Amino acid sequence: MRANPFFPLADALSPERPLAPGLIPDSPCAPPSDDALSDAQYNALVAFHGIERERLVLIHPGSHHDAPAWAAEQYADVADQLAADGWQIAIIGDAPDPERTAGVLGAMQTAALFLAGAVAPRTLPRLIADAQLLLSDDATAPSPVAVARALGTPHIVLDEHPRDTATDAIASRARAELSDVEHAHPGRPFTLHMPAAHDAV
Description:
Elements: H1 7-12, H2 34-49, E1 56-60, H3 72-84, E2 88-91, H4 102-107, E3 113-114, H5 124-130, E4 133-136, H6 144-151, E5 155-157, H7 167-179, H8 197-200
Parallel strand pairs: 1-2, 1-4, 2-3, 4-5
Helix pairs in contact: 3-7, 5-6
């Protein structure tokens, strides 16, 4: 019979033997958890881009279809209307898809945050959860719409509307969705584009 069945733990806690990093979760030597890393990444994203959660509207123009529901100019029209109301517009999606992401920014007359390619997959759900509205082309996985539905974020899916739906009609619906969010509120309209990180260098 072993005299001390807990000797490995006793040795680990001995003053003469340093603790192995991560042995005790609350130890300052422990590496940060995935949740802590995700929180840090998200907080850094919010701070760097000046994201204002209470008036954030996400535009996701990426499409899984060969013929997207809307052109970039149509997204830009709705985004401009909401920006003029004082909502903060952020364009998300894949950076290498300039016709669907940068194309919207380029067609806008008001400011927008260009977050395409800047949001890590692990932080995207946090951004969607904090948004007051998501406007997206389609709901085909892995569209952000699935995340919005799971989190209860108000959303509008354009390919669920007739193709001849006017931008004014979608803007009106967006305003109706935003009016139902208790903690959301518009601010002062922007007048200048805010550059992406790679443009600011």
